[in-house]
Please model this.
Amino acid sequence: MKDIISVYDFSKSDFDELFELTDKLRNMPIFPKILKEKTVALAFFEPSTRTYLSFNKAAINLGASTIGFSGEEGTSIAKGENLADTIRMLNNYADMIVIRHKFDGAAKFASEISEIPVINAGDGKHEHPTQTVIDFYTIYRNFKNIDGLTFGLMGDLRYARVVNSFLRALTRFKPKKVYLISPPQLSARKEILEELNYPYREVIDYNEVIEEIDVLYVTRIQKERFPDESEYEKVKESYVVDMNLVSKMRKDAIILHALPRVNEISREVDKTPQAKYFEQASYAVPVRMAIFHKIVGE
Ligand code: ASP
Model:
């Protein structure tokens, strides 16, 4: 596997292998140094905490050195350097590039001019494939499988790239049903819905479906992607997961969130058994180590 640009780069058996490999890596006292003498460039043109740090840590665990930046400030991008020139330069300094960028398609573009592997760590409102592997691994840990479950994706289904990757990745499995819960202004994109090969329904009021849901995937309203701030103001508090909502959920249901959360999940929900978003974040390093294994082919 040279590049990882979309979740469509993973087959069903790739997902199964990644889950197994992550299980193994989590139990290893010492990690195999498959990236020894290698350099991983972390080219983060947009802010990041978890993704940047966990890719960094995963690379170091496997024996690599890392170079890079998080945010355009302090780089020549601030002087107007274009993406193509930055990628060409990184080809001289590194063996692999992990890229995050505000433009949809930036990772694909980078992979086309790069001789070395490129991993998409989030491109605009398009995709965030490695986050989905973390999301699915968390589901796999909690339910032992993905098939047969009922999902509810709630919040900003229009601009959240994690939603696009999640919905697309589900086409590799057999979900029972997927509820897309959002205000009409933030509904999932038509081009994504057209690709889905499983039963789904768009819903505005979560009360209609909450009792059926096994996995509630909550998203942050993606303020930075709104073309107009006043549009954001209208929808910013569309849904809040609070104790009242949790009381309506099944006892064995789980709540996921890619983080960062703003106010879409109340702090008091954190201590409920359904809250799995910190467990989810804890899998970021081993899952990304497994992803590096896929790229290296070992
Ligand atoms: N951290 C995730 C992303 O980069 C989710 C979010 O920002 O809301 O897409």
